[in-house]
Specification:
Residues 26-289 form the Protein kinase domain. By secondary structure, this protein is of the alpha+beta class. The protein contains twelve helices and nine strands. Helix 10 (262-270) packs parallel to helix 12. The longest helix is centred in the middle third of the chain and has 20 residues, at 123-142. The structure holds adenosine-5'-triphosphate (ATP) and magnesium ion (MG).
Length: 333
């Protein structure tokens, strides 16, 4: 994957350059983390004298009208959604040609760091985290907002309130993805697109997306929290894109024989190539997953296995084509 090409000294210099500076009324204290298109700082909101997370987007994005329009629209919509599992957005705008977003500072780790540290999680923990993300996503979908970039780095895990709720999960970064722009050719070749581990087939082919693309990405995340790696692992991005579009995900129980076999069918349905074949909502997916993990049958009283067998690839009659050599799995099954 290529690195990002940031246009100004804001991101190209030493990350500590901005420390102590004030931008749009926020005094920058230290860097929390950075991704391909932004740097996140701990900052003090000088008006209210409280700590916030201040995200500064790479300057080039402010010049991309498509991104800018979406940023303005989606930060407004995200700020309007009151949900316990969505990071509250306090403020968003532009200062000195840089788009910024100020939000609640979440004390904890993101799920990427948690998985890198702990490896695969127990099913109960994976389900508790998955349900909270699912609830946030369904609320967003009810507001007509599709996240488009559900991945472990955008899931923040904070300490929970009590032993019944050992962790509290926040979803962040609504609509802040360049992926859909890049994959449909809006950004320049070589720009950072971000991870393709969680991208839905319809995002790849540039078809219109709805909440069911988030069902797919959530399923990739839930799979990874239980398996230790996402469903598809390939040597390069082209092969990974091919796998999302045509390959069947390997059964989770191949890696986790301790998990009830019906979970495979639930994941297969959530990871169906065509949105019509997936669960209608993220919570419906998680409810089926929990039932299957407990050894109960899937939704509608039918065994979950039957659901998986119904999963096809509409638009492709017959089996999917054989992948070319560059798209073969790294680890032959
Ligand atoms: N509200 C927040 N509170 C605390 N930490 C945060 C907050 N928002 C983001 N972070 C931290 O900052 C890191 C960087 O976030 P950022 O969104 O820039 O990158 P990313 O999501 O990992 O990758 P990408 O650029 O592909 O979105 C996150 O991984 C997270 O650990
Ligand atoms: Mg992020």
């Amino acid at each position: 994957m290529n690195g990002s090409r940031h246009g100004t000294s804001l991101f190209s210099g030493n990350p500590s350059d901005l420390i102590g500076r004030t931008i749009a009324g926020y005094r920058i204290v230290d860097e929390i983390g950075r991704g391909g298109m932004a740097v996140v700082y701990r900052a003090i909101d000088l008006r209210l004298d409280r700590t916030v997370a201040l995200k500064l987007l790479a300057p080039g994005l402010a010049r991309n009208d498509t991104f800018r329009g979406r940023f303005t629209h989606e930060s407004r919509v995200a700020a309007a959604i009151e949900h316990p599992n969505i990071v509250p957005v306090f403020d968003a705008g532009e200062a000195d040609g840089v788009l910024y977003i100020a939000m609640r500072f979440v004390v904890g780790r993101d799920l990427r760091q948690l998985l890198d540290r702990e490896g695969p999680l127990p099913v109960a923990v994976a389900a508790r985290i998955g349900v909270q993300v699912a609830s946030a996503l369904d609320a967003a979908h009810d507001h007509g907002l599709v996240h488009r970039d559900v991945k472990p780095g955008n899931i923040l895990v904070a300490r929970g309130t009590d032993s019944d709720h050992p962790e509290h999960v926040y979803l962040t970064d609504f609509g802040l993805t360049k992926k859909s722009l890049s994959l449909t050719g809006f950004t320049n070749v070589g720009e950072f697109v971000g991870t393709l581990d969680y991208v839905a087939p319809e995002q790849i082919s540039g078809k219109p997306v709805d909440g069911r693309c988030d069902v797919y990405s959530l399923a990739c995340v839930v799979y990874e929290t239980m398996a230790g790696n996402p469903p598809f692992q390939r040597e390069d991005d082209m092969a990974l894109l091919w796998a999302h579009q045509y390959d069947q995900p390997p059964a989770l129980t191949g890696k986790r024989p301790d998990i009830a076999a019906d979970v495979d069918a639930v994941l297969a349905k959530a990871l169906a190539k065509s949105p019509e074949d997936r669960y209608d909502s993220c919570l419906a997916f998680m409810a089926s997953l929990r039932a299957a993990a407990r050894g109960a049958t899937g939704a509608g009283g039918k065994p979950a296995r039957a659901d998986a067998e119904a999963v096809g690839t509409p638009g492709h009659s017959g089996p999917p084509p054989e992948p070319p050599s560059w798209a073969r799995p790294v680890f032959p099954r």
